[in-house]
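Reopening this ticket.

The earlier resolution said the output was attached, but the attachment link was broken on my side. Pasting everything inline this time so it's all in one place.
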Amino acid sequence: MINIVSKNKVSKKVTTKNIAITGITAALYVVMTLAIAPLAYGAVQFRFSELMVLFVYINPAFAPGLVLGCAIANCFSPLGIVDVIFGTMGTLCTVIAISKTKNLFVATLWPTVFCIFVGIELYFISGLPFLATTATVMLGEFAVVTCIGYPLFKYILKNTKFIELLK
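Inline output:
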């Protein structure tokens, strides 16, 4: 176990368990994204790995792995390093917002909101129309995270043994 002391002298512990959670989460995100790569990139996206961001609603310890996984998956994006930087920034904003949200339905909306980053990328890099492209990316995210993720996680939250395992 390693103690990390920040500027305000609050100690955070980096444990083997947290490192394992980060690595496994990142690996799952990457595999799930690359398995459906044609659907995971571009103006119309159905990135089913995004369902995983809702694990942050249950336990914020999943956030670093999701951000890392997104960065690695975005290395394979047609947009290159721009997607690694800005797409990953969208995921970072998403997991921060979800970790501070008390309502599951609202938590499912944050990924859609932060698709604005992808819309901006596609506008500047690919020259696609901003509003239409942002809308299609948001629609895909909404379909995956809210329409599929919300009922799925309502069901998951009823399983107390599974929730305790995730915590």
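Reporter confirms the inline version is readable. Residues 98 and 107 are 5 Å apart (CA to CA). Residues 130-157 form the longest helix (28 residues).
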